[in-house]
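Lecture 7 notes: from sequence to structure.

We start with a single chain of 88 residues. Read the sequence below before looking at the structure.
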Amino acid sequence: MIIAPDDPGPASSDEIFKAKVAKVFDGDGFLASVWNPQREIWIERIPFRFAFIDAPEMEQPFGAESRDFLHGLIVGKTLRLDPVGKES
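Now the structure, written as tokens:
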């Protein structure tokens, strides 16, 4: 299990992604606008998936409840996103 603090601490400006959440697809995916600090513009409609989260699919039991819960947590908010890469 990975536990992240509410305040992950300082990061340099090139490490920070800010995203305004527009829509939640399911319990672990959402659509957002992302701030590009180099161009100083918002890039629209970028899909995201949470790393290390396995929520039920929409057609599975509790899929809609999972989506609704995530929706209540993040829609309309601006998030700080820290990218995580996969390793073999």
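The longest helix spans residues 63-74. Keep this in mind for problem set 3.
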